[in-house]
Amino acid sequence: MSSETLVKYEYLVVEVENKVATVTINRAPVNALNSKVYQELSRVIDEMDANDDVNVIILTGAGEKAFVAGADINEMAGADLVTVVKNNKVARNMFKKVENSTKPVIAALNGLALGGGLELALSCDLRIASENAKFAFPEVGLGIIPGGGGTQRLQKIVGQGLAKELLFTGTMFTAEEAHNWHIVNKVVPAGEALAAAKELADKLAKQPPVALQMVKLAVNTGSNTDIESGLIIESNSFNTAFSTEDGKEGLVAFTEKRKPNYKGR
After folding, report:
1. pLDDT of 31-71, one tens digit each?
2. What biological-process GO terms show up in the record (predicted)?
3. pLDDT of 70
4. Rounded CA separation 216/127 (Å)
5. Is 262 a member of any domain?
6. Residue 264 lies in a domain
7. What string of H, E and C letters represents the secondary structure of the chain?
8. Are 9 and 98 in the same domain?
9. Are 179 and 215 in contact (CB under 8 A)?
10. Same domain, 68 and 191
11. Is 54 inside any structural domain?
12. Which domain holds residue 44?
């Protein structure tokens, strides 16, 4: 199937091919996040969630230098508190939409992921980094702190001690360190992050979408509650997946020793 390019955004390029949507943040020189980019990312997640031709979403940055090198500091520095609070709400809602999208979201980290860029990556389900990618939360050095969920999502992955060290100091760390700390799932040679993300996305796109959605719901929701509540969430998600046509098809195909024909319902 040939790819379909959707030209509907000022700072995003969206292509859909074989059930995979690749969303490229394209704001030279380093794809910094401003209020317009936050709004466009929020809209594209809504649109991809509603698109039956999309089973998986990839987020990446244009060029070879940066995935997203943080928020637009010039925009922030010139804003009053009312404007900052308004923009921060838009940003936080966008990160939440990425995290809770009904479809798996893969970050292809092709370069710097700093501040808001790292927050965006942490909102994704899976992260693949080029070996030259670098990461940091530099906000404290600017007299502020992360405002898009970085203090919360980072500690859930690496633990409080390391999270506090990275947040307090703003230390920049490598892709290999990020992998060792379970921040990224895989490190690949420079320039190959998007290709690796597409390879993984193609595998996920062939899986029954409701089952993927239920796994994501169970993990995300369960991580914010106690074990007993989490088990109830898992049980309800299991029942939902089992009741679908794809749930029946997968089990029958296994007993008949054939490849399942999933239809997304």
Report:
1. 999 999 999 999 999 999 999 999 999 999 999 899 999 87
2. fatty acid beta-oxidation
3. 86
4. 15
5. no
6. no
7. CCCEEECCCCCEEEEEECCEEEEEECCCCCCCECHHHHHHHHHHHHHHHCCCCCCEEEEEECCCCEEECCECHHHHHCCCHHHHHHHHHHHHHHHHHHHCCCCCEEEEECCEEECHHHHHHHHCCEEEEECCCEEECCHHHHCCCCCCCHHHHHHHHHCHHHHHHHHHHCCCEEHHHHHHCCCCCEEECCCCHHHHHHHHHHHHHCCCHHHHHHHHHHHHHHCCCCHHHHHHHHHHHHHHHHCCHHHHHHHHHHHCCCCCCCCCC
8. yes
9. no
10. yes
11. yes
12. 4-205
Query: What CATH code is carried by the domain that includes residue 213?
Result: 1.10.12.10
Q: Give this prediction's pTM.
A: 0.92
Residues tagged active-site: 119, 139
Q: Which residues pair with 186 in a beta bridge?
A: 128
- In order of 45, 77, 78, the CA distances from 74 in angstroms are 26, 5, 6
What type of residue sits at position 76? M
pLDDT given at position 68 = 96
pLDDT digits (tens, 9 = 90+) for 70-120: 877 888 788 889 988 888 899 999 999 999 999 999 999 999 999 999 999
Q: What Rg do the C-alpha atoms of the chain give, in angstroms?
A: 19
* Measured CA distances, 241 to 9, 39, 253 (Å): 35, 32, 16
Cα(252)–Cα(257) distance, integer angstroms: 8
Do residues 44 and 169 both lie within one domain? yes
Query: Looking up tokens 């307090």, which residue turns up?
Result: 168
> Looking at this protein, which amino acid is placed at residue 132?
N
Beta bridge partners of 5: 15
Lookup: tokens for 170 = 């703003």
Condensed to tens digits (0 to 9), the pLDDT of residues 136-183 reads 999 999 999 999 999 999 999 999 999 999 999 999 999 999 999 999
Q: What's the number of CA atoms in the CB half-sphere (13 Å) around residue 174?
A: 8
